[in-house]
Amino acid sequence: MARPARDPELSELLAEMPLNAELNPELLAQLRQYPSPPFAFAGERREVTVPAADGTPIPLTVFSPADPTPGAPCVYWMHGGGMVMGDRFAQIDIPLEWLERFGAVVVTVDYRLAPESGGTTLVDDCYRGLLWTAEHAAELGIDPARIVVAGASAGGGLAAGVTLLARDRGTPAVAAQVLIYPMLDHRNDTTSSRQFSGTPDTWTREMNDFGWRSVLGGLDGAPVPGHVSPAVAEDLSGLPATYIDAGTAEVFRDEDVAYATRIWAAGGQAELHVWAGGFHGFDALYPQARLSAEARRARGDWLARALGK
């Protein structure tokens, strides 16, 4: 199929990166050997664990500004990696920008990965970490009314799922959700999904199929819940202010546009940006590129309005 072209600057940068068309257990094992890149942070860092529903310890890392302000906003972060790889420090530079700009406390969660864990485990782990964050708001120095749920790629899909769970269970309060090229739809059959199939890319339809099969195997054939695959959630009313972005040259483009459209149809408020020439993960991989800087700036400006900054 014809497909939108990549942004020229980003395309040139991507030319030096090894790409794959498919993902399999052998390649996944290799990719998991690479740690998240190092990051700079000036402030206080704290490690905690929270028990999952089955008692498994879920690691969380709390990043606080060097000069914290009582009643600070909080960003609860979920990393990307197709639900099969990555750790709580993947793409962490994105929320740490908001720590520096807004004085936000950042909490990032190491949810369990598929295929070793599947079904509802990943989103349930994330929800347990969010509950802990809200319950310890005073200790963390955060305003419980200004907790933002955010994530990129698989983390964006988990952020959407956690926000649905919080709405349905009535706790905790979520002030806003930031869904960065989120992985929302296990059906994997949109036009953009089919466009980005069969050739190497940062994330393809085939890779997406591997990720979803890894998660859904844990359901043992049961219907897929909306908090696992948010695109199939029947009701998107009552959600907090939402920011969604994606690139035109990526597999998640159409499911992300559809999710924003359904929030509007339910009477909710969503801001949607589709960046011309952006491929999956473009601003995380190449933050120095012009399009990446524009995407990050737009995201931060929206968050400033949402937080009243």
Summarize the structure.
This protein is of the alpha/beta class and 309 residues long.
Task: Kindly describe this structure.
By secondary structure, this protein is an alpha/beta fold. The chain has a single domain (8-30, 43-307), classed as Rossmann fold (3-Layer(aba) Sandwich). The chain is built from eleven helices and eight strands. The protein has helices spanning 8-14, 25-31, 93-102, 121-135, 137-140, 154-169, 191-195, 205-216, 253-265, 282-285, 290-307; strands at residues 43-51, 57-65, 72-78, 105-109, 142-152, 176-180, 241-249, 270-279. It has an eight-stranded mixed beta sheet, with helices on both faces. A hairpin with a 5-residue loop joins β1 (43-51) and β2. The longest helix has 18 residues, at 290-307. The radius of gyration is 18 Å and the shape is globular. The termini are far apart. The mean pLDDT is 97.
Key traits:
309 residues, alpha/beta, Rossmann fold, eight-stranded mixed sheet, 8 strands
Question: Helices and strands in order, then pairings?
Answer:
Elements: H1 8-14, H2 25-31, E1 43-51, E2 57-65, E3 72-78, H3 93-102, E4 105-109, H4 121-135, H5 137-140, E5 142-152, H6 154-169, E6 176-180, H7 191-195, H8 205-216, E7 241-249, H9 253-265, E8 270-279, H10 282-285, H11 290-307
Parallel strand pairs: 3-4, 3-5, 5-6, 6-7, 7-8
Antiparallel strand pairs: 1-2, 2-4
